[in-house]
Design goal:
Elements (H helix, E strand, L loop, with lengths): L1 H18 L14 H11 L3 H36 L5 H17 L6 H10 L3 H6 L3 H27 L1
Length: about 160
């Protein structure tokens, strides 16, 4: 789409040059400007089959990384959940913040498992008891989990800028 827009702008530019008689004599019969014509001639010389083959290789690598990273993330966060079960509440929050931040900062790792793990780890029975127990404790644990996950995501966005 951008290439077509670039060519369209070149056509409009060339037609305006011809209309106002500012185009060089040898390029008055051309539809595109000399610069765009030279660029297209250079592109025609490229080995497009080799380019497409390399693009396919890169697509396979990226998709493989996405699948592996997504699977690894879920397994790692499940392992983390088991290990954090016997740790004091405040330390659980600190560890989750650092692990969640690290996960958000790695581009190929999806964010959804971090949110789900936060919802599981930060709202389990020990967290609910820390907020007073019962349904009110669960509501507070959920609210704090949402706030912590939101703060982690915003911190990651700020760090990536």
């Amino acid at each position: 789409i951008l290439c077509a827009l670039y060519a369209l702008i070149s056509v409009v530019n060339q037609r305006i040059r011809v209309a106002f008689n500012t185009a060089p004599n040898q390029s008055k019969s051309k539809w595109l400007t000399d610069k765009v014509t030279d660029q297209l001639n250079e592109v025609y010389k490229w080995d497009w089959s080799r380019i497409m083959i390399n693009i396919h290789y890169w697509v396979v690598v990226v998709i493989a990384l996405q699948v592996v990273a997504g699977s690894f993330t879920v397994v790692f966060l499940s392992y983390l959940r088991v290990k954090l079960a016997a740790i004091p509440v405040a330390l659980v929050y600190v560890i989750f913040v650092f692990v969640g931040l690290a996960m958000f900062l790695i581009p190929i790792i999806p964010g959804l498992p971090v949110y789900l793990t936060g919802g599981i780890i930060l709202t389990d029975q020990s967290m609910v008891r820390a907020f007073g127990g019962g349904s009110a404790g669960f509501a507070w644990a959920c609210t704090v989990a949402v706030g912590v996950c939101f703060a982690i995501k915003l911190a990651a966005v700020v760090m990536q800028q």
